[in-house]
Specification:
FAD/NAD(P)-binding domain; seven-stranded mixed β-sheet; binds NADPH dihydro-nicotinamide-adenine-dinucleotide phosphate
Length: 474
């Protein structure tokens, strides 16, 4: 008789958990998975996927405007938010169904319930009260929204604000919206709402949006957003939100007020660990608030592992998927390997979008930071060359769109290795995904130069930047 009910029990059916469950089951393990909300997790249900659909919707405005220069008379256009939301919901339901089918096909038992850890090998399923045992437990509960506080105190009127969760289900498109925060979600939703026709104001507590991204990309997007009529109020926090006739009023810390129909907080996400019973099993929490894990995603409890945003390493879907896959291969497939965290590409789906892989200029100038965060790149950086291109994409020429595309390569002087690639403009994410292959393989600037250009394209600029950038004389 089997010692445990399951060989593996996964808590959380998001990107990381689903991948781990399916791969482990493929190796013959008896696998159960619990999900308290919807199978697919944040990315599929209320994150990357529905967001990208909304981004597509928001970009039709540019297409309609640009069409005239190419001889098209599009005529008057109207936009219907409920149609978009209904179609988006249909697609998300379809994807959720596929996730379930794929889990079932792999032989994974799905439990639609919240699950909490009861001990080193025990999990209680809240819906039935049943406790099951498992040889290994994988915590893959992701992140939960962190609504900003004002120096530890809740912000008055927080009950009036929405988060990205609600933004996906608003009954109507707000005519005006204040978006609080300067990270991925704030910047992406600001672009979505603006493209769909809302008046948008971003309120951000520091001096420039997208902290952590390359300075040129941050500046470039700030300028493009201004051109698109998105107001960005920096150096301010929201001290309170009140209901007034016709909508809401956000009160900023300098006493100024911004009236709008909606206020959306996008002030980050935190590892979803509350009430999981981690302490009962001896699972420790790291200083960054995530579950403490080693490179094999092992927690401080012998049979408990954790992957994805709940570990607060790099909080991106493909990273969670890799971590889940590596865990399953290593523990159930006797094929140990570990996720690599260097050269992780990412995109901000603003309009225009940012695609980025490797180091920012500031990071590349700091060898100590590189050695601490990317041991495989240790010894590189410090002395770097920059290559930059700023140009109007061909499509903008006869459409009359003034928007400029920016590209930047950061190259290690000693080795010629390309350490960073940053693109702002249409299809930046698509381009950078491809550049990431070469950069992970250790491509040098000479390899970029030797690569034949694909003409006419915007991406060809990445292989035709011949002159080192020199700062303008002051
Ligand atoms: P981010 O961490 O990217 O941004 C949070 C923003 O809120 C920052 O600008 C931060 O400011 C600000 N903030 C945090 N706390 C407070 C506070 N108390 N008061 C005022 N402002 C505050 O989180 P997001 O919510 O945008 O996204 C969550 C995660 O989801 C991201 O980490 C990312 O991994 C993932 N994601 C990825 C996407 C993609 O790959 N395209 C898209 C969307 C999300 P400061 O800069 O000062 O810290």
């Amino acid at each position: 008789m089997a010692k445990h009910d399951y060989d593996l029990f996964v808590i959380g059916a998001g990107s990381g958990g689903v991948r781990a469950a399916r791969i482990a089951a493929g190796y013959g393990a008896k696998v159960g998975i619990a999900e308290e909300y919807r199978v697919g997790g944040t990315c599929v249900i209320r994150g990357c996927v529905p967001k990208k659909l909304l981004v597509y919707a928001s970009r039709f405005r540019d297409e309609f405007e640009d069409a005239a220069g190419f001889g098209w008379n599009v005529g008057a256009t109207t936009f219907d938010w409920p149609t978009l939301i209904a179609n988006k919901d249909k697609e998300i339901a379809r994807l959720e169904g596929l996730y379930k089918i794929n889990l079932e096909k792999a032989g994974v038992e799905i439990h639609a319930t919240r699950a909490v850890i009861e001990g080193p090998n025990a999990v209680r399923l809240e819906k039935t009260g049943r406790t099951i045992t498992a040889g290994k437990i994988l915590v893959a509960t992701g992140g939960a929204l962190a609504l900003a506080e004002d120096s530890g105190k809740p912000i008055p009127g927080l009950e009036h604000v929405i988060s990205s969760n609600e933004a996906f289900h608003l009954p109507k498109l707000p005519r005006s919206i204040v978006v609080y925060g300067g990270g991925y979600i704030a910047v992406e939703f600001a672009g979505i709402f603006r493209g769909l026709g809302s008046e948008v104001t971003i309120v951000y507590r520091r001096d420039k949006i997208l902290r952590g991204f390359d300075e040129d990309m941050r500046t470039g997007l700030t300028e493009e957003y201004a051109r698109r009529g998105i107001k960005i109020v920096t150096g301010r926090t929201i001290a309170g939100v009140e209901k007034v006739a016709g909508g809401l009023r956000a009160k900023l810390d300098d006493g100024s007020m911004i009236a709008s129909e909606a206020v959306m907080f996008a002030t980050g996400r935190a590892p979803h660990i509350k009430g999981l019973g981690l302490e009962k099993a001896g699972v420790e929490i790291a200083a960054n608030g995530g579950i403490k894990v080693d490179t094999a995603s092992r927690t401080t409890a012998a049979d408990i592992y954790a992957v994805g945003d709940v570990t607060n390493r790099i909080n991106l879907t493909p990273v969670a998927i890799r971590e889940g896959h590596a865990f399953a291969d290593s523990v159930f497939g006797k094929k140990p390997w570990a996720t690599e965290y260097d050269m992780v590409p990412t995109a901000v789906f603003s309009t225009p979008e940012i695609g980025t892989v490797g180091l920012t200029e500031a990071e590349a100038r700091d060898p100590a930071w590189i050695a601490a965060h990317h041991p495989k790149l240790a010894g590189l950086g410090g002395e770097i060359d920059l290559y930059k291109a700023a140009f109007r994409p061909m499509k903008g020429t006869i459409s009359g769109r003034a928007e400029r595309m920016l590209m930047k390569l950061i190259v290690d002087q000693k080795t010629d290795r390309v350490l960073g690639c940053h693109v702002l403009g249409p299809d930046a994410g698509e381009m950078v995904q491809m550049a990431a292959i070469a950069m992970r393989m250790g491509a040098r600037k000479a390899d970029f130069d030797a690569t034949m250009a694909l003409h006419p394209s915007a991406a060809e600029e990445l292989v035709t930047m011949r002159s080192k950038w020199v700062p303008p004389a002051t």
